[in-house]
Amino acid sequence: MTMVREIDYGTPAVTAEAMVTLTIDGREVTVPDGTSIMRASMEAGVKVPRLCATDSLNSFGSCRLCLVEIEGRRGTPASCTTPVAPGLKVHTVSDNLRRIRRGVMELYISDHPLDCLTCSANGNCELQTAAGEVGLREVRYGYAGKNHLSAPVDQSNPYFNFDPSKCIVCSRCVRACEEVQGTFALTIQDRGFASKVAAGLDEPFLTSECVSCGACVQACPTATLMEKSVVEMGQPEHSVVTTCAYCGVGCSFKAEMRGDQVVRMVPWKDGKANHGHSCVKGRFAWGYAQHPDRVLKPMIREKISDPWREVSWDVAIERVASEFKRIQAKAGKDSVGVITSSRCTAEEAYLVQKLTRTAFGNNNTDTCARVCHSPTGYGLGKTFGTSAGTQDFDSVEESDVIVVIGANPTDGHPVFGSRMKKRLREGAKLIVIDPRRIDLVRTPHVAAAYHLALRPGTNVAMLTALAHVIVTEGLVARSFIDERCDTEAFADWAAFVSEPRNSPEALEATTGVPAALVRGAARLYATGGNGAIYYGLGVTEHSQGSTAVMGIANLAMATGNIGRRGVGVNPLRGQNNVQGSCDMGSFPHELPGYRHVSLPGVRAIYEAEWGVAIDPEPGLRIPNMLDAAVEGTFLGLYVQGEDIAQSDPDTKHVTAGLSAMECVVVHDLFLNETANYAHVFLPGATFLEKDGTFINAERRINRVRKVMEPRAGLGDWEVTQAISNAMGYKMHYNDPSEIMAEVARTTPTFAGVSYEKLDQGAVQWPCNESAPDGTPIMHIDHFVRGKGNFVITEYVPTDEKVGPRFPLLLTTGRILSQYNVGAQTRRTANVVWHAEDMLEIHPHDAEERGIKDGDWVRLRSRAGETTLRAAVTERVAPGVVYTTFHHPLTQANVVTTEFSDWATNCPEYKVTAVQVSPSNGPSDWQVEYRTLSAKNRRVEAVPAGE
Amino acid sequence: MTRVFVPRDAAALAVGADEVAAALADHADIVRTGSRGLFWLEPMIEVETQQGRIAYGPVEAADIPGLLADGLLTGSARHLRLGSPERIPFLARQTRLTFSRCGIVDPLSLDDYHAHGGLDGLRKAWEIGPAATIEAVLASGLRGRGGAGFPTGVKWKTVADAPTDPAHGGPEFPAHGGHRVPAKGGRKFIVCNADEGDSGTYADRMLLEGDPFSLIEGMAIAGFAVGASKGYVYTRSEYPHAIATFDKALAIARAAGMLGGAFDIEQRPGAGAYVCGEETALLESIEGRRGQVRSKPPLPAHKGLFGCPTVINNMITLTTVPCILRDGAAAYEAIGMGRSRGTMPIQLAGNVRYGGLFEAGFGVTLGELVYDIGGGTLSGRPVRAAQVGGPLGAYFPPALFDTPFDYEAFAAKDGLIGHGGIVVFDDTVDMAQQARFALEFCVAESCGKCTPCRIGSVRGMETVDKIMAGQNVDANLELLRDLCHTLRAGSLCALGGFIPYPVLSAMNFFPEDFRRGPRVTNVPGTSAAITGTPIAGTPMTGRPGANPPLAAA
To answer: What is the pTM of this model?
Structure first.
């Protein structure tokens, strides 16, 4: 086992047609024009000493160690800032250069603690290395001069320390914060010898604007910014490249290890989704894997009111199989089902849906995408022919106009958010369509050209109004439409959107957005160059979620913004493998690859592969399963890695359904909320314990590699396989690669995928004979469905309406430091940033109700009520309130309703009519729930001697 | 009423010009002007008479009643009478091109400006077109007056030829990273460096206060020549009068249609950092960033202000352009020596008898400047050294006073002419202390970006302190030389790169001062008085203001 150490070329790679040949220390090297001499030297195998240069940042030229001599030129230019030129003869070593470098290093060390042996960077310190390289032998200034050695250490951040006494003021941290992360939280304060790195207005890191993405820590060449885990555990000794298990960006990380313990997670420079960047979750919030709450033994109980009893895997598996068999014998084969997990690997999701289609003999499989991006699948399928985003993340680098609809990338998809901000700083224009003033609307060096702060629930009206402007003002891409789209469908659609009732003026009363802004935004998107749309759950989680997705697709087609780099329609998917779980046939109506179960040809493939007959009728969706449970016809559920009791809407209905079932099997890391209603608990494996793939929002199939053995003994796929075998359907995979091989065998879009291939580099599906290296951009020459299809998007207001009883609209979302139901992030130090869910309310609405910032308030809808504390802020418009759903005690989903997308049943989380009033404490429901929750989580003490 | 010209130059104000003007207000038509630059005669007022202007100075408010009674307004009063200002030798010996109007005109009168040849240069540029304008600047041999001496015409041509990317008319902040993005903006900029921070210099200030339209005209010509529509003037924050005057001049020019159409100018006062006189730090500062030096390349001409091609010139460079256009490149080029063509406004300061602005063709020797023109020291003691070119310039001993004022001649002697400032010292100066002062200046003004300057300046000062305290003198002198090498070769910009000039020149030309052992008046680690115990042991005799005016007949 070895450390993965990327080569640092010192300055970023340059892409240029023209190549330049020069000589460095007698070696000829040819590099793209514009490359720095430093990078060219590295290419030639010559490392010039350096400290302020690193290839993730633009060259800076401050350390003055990398000076070189160039024949025919005066002086000693810095190799990091001097570009190559044809025929240059460069010398990186000479007596003069040695003298200068030693002189510079002597200055550095005259203000640096001499504690190398006890320093946390010992063994991996660039200053130490450079001092060795330049041959520093003495510091003639002595150590009694002015210095920074007594500067105090800032330990405020839970994950890293800032020790300014070790700082060499190379500005790498500041530049990383600016160039890579785009937060601009760090600066060099003061000047000259007093120059120092400062967070915010010289505050502790924790209270500054720092978002703890870790870019500064990674960029630091010394121990100045250092992970506390390294301070604690020492330098890692080997590393494994794997994929983050948080959001749908799918960042590649090096898990840096000592033995079987993770020392730190460091973003991998060659990761194609993140290019070496990370966010606070992936970089630091992995401690939940070792959290004492983790359940490591299988447990069973007869009734949910009983305490849990720890048992062996065999007993637990046997219990699952016998119960499911019993239920099916009693209530029919359709009385049981599964929920696959978007947190688990694609292989594991594949296996769970296979379990229900083979061992259970039905199509009762659904997944958490039901509650997030199912409308994306439907909407993009109808219009383009595929259920996925059209671009790779790199595409944003060529976008000129970026439209963000119902997404909050800087919180929800922070690493992609940073890349988007970088492009915006380069001059791309931004249009934000969101009820809230999300950070992107105004963040350092980024400002939205248009913020269309529409009323929740009016996306479709807004999209149609935008289309109205594009069509009626003659901004459509006529030749693109003629060539690529169904022109009849276009004509119908154009006639529809052109109707005066669909003009921005006519819809102003509906959306609440001034028509002039809508017109301006439409013109910008249609005429501003490459237009790219990124959207999130603010689009899908509505009663017209699927319609809105189609409305977005219509806009992209009408303006020709599809089928090349810089454009496209891009769902920002929520979970690490939500794309993968959908790809793997997790929906009740689809087999892997989004092929309908009613298609005999598709069924035939799997019937041959699996040796069973497949039910041609779609199975039950999650809400249908719960309805059926309440009706008494659905009695057994195997839930892998999802907490429907917290995440799904109308919690009371969910828990009623779960309570009505006879065998609920929860396969998870923790006793989650759903486990309160479970009869069998199967301990799951974290991503650190998994082998497989996660498929991200850009359809990229990223390898997940096991860095430690499953702490509970079995990988999740092994557990599913054991259940299947115990049920009587034999599975015998030796390893997840065999599952992927089966996927490739049976799914055309995955035909070219294998672990051997992925180990060469992650690819984006479709990956097959016609696209052996995968497909970064889709629909280049033609749409997957043939001709692009325009769909008429009639705006139908949601039935969820404000009225005298419920005058405010609640919308929900996430924040940076927490992740979804919080099962993982709540069990890390991330809670320092977000210890509870708060209700954002506009000052006007707050004042009317006598609510002050921080007050306890009661949030009530017709579905239920809960209490939480208020945050009075202008981020939300008057009439709109907002909260997150990270904390089970808040139970935000007690309030959300049963309304859902007409096409896919995706819940309408984003619009709930509510009333907010001052409160003294928790609601009755919360009190009851807490009691129940504590009771249902009891684990029986194991009697001595057993 | 008779017109009396009273300077409003800050140097005149400092010695009571406002009071003089007030005392005259009821008796004459007061015109406030810039200064002629004869500072030992300030406040120097000029009376408009039938024989032309008659100068009086230095005048105090208390002198006015007597002068009036003696016939000041007809030029017949004898007391303090200097005669025709043009015939005062200090002025008569000059070749005033850049400063031709300074001290003569009402700085805020466009009519005055026109009447004295103003705008002829711009008209000429319009007439001959951008290419020929650049050609004229090239042919004149004009070089950067900030000190670097880069040929102005070459810089202009580079900017004129620099491509702009019309697709990116982007916002006014630079791209962070992203090699894929070309220089932004279909725009180019003219930036004037008026952050005059060198010790002993005041030429920019005098012109801003005394002839601000010449800068506006110069920048308009530059903008026309290279295709820039916007100019910025970055002014030294310690120049409140200059800033106010220039703001008024901008408003007047705008109201007169001289600005605001195809070309406009915005003034941006600095925030007090010397290093912002370095061109790239200046650009950073205008952009609203920390005043920190950028590494070059890219050159500002390719990627300057807000990432756009930018002409950044010293104020004196830009204000010299109008007369080049007006009088022709050949006339300007005919003056000077070697590769230094035209005139240089030299500023005499420090311990000098006749301090002031002396514009002359290149080639006049340092000795002529210090002795003949400056009249030696104000203290009357022997001259020991002259520092030329600001705080980063070398200290020249009288033995080198035969060096002609010329970029190359000074460089050949490890010196520089910089912005044309000369600071004179008499024999009481302690040159080790001056070396320390140079490093102390670097400590105070370093932006902190590059290591040699950030840490080296402090270590250098500490090392000089050790030398002055007599500790390991030989070893520390060697270390100081090594440090100077590191600073010279390693620094990112001229601040750290040139600070060895004063240090090494002090060590080389005045080695005895570094071996004097502990100073009585100097406590190591503290900033000691610049003038210590006289070397020769004789007391100072000079007394400011005691010198008779050098009056013309």
So the answer is: 0.91
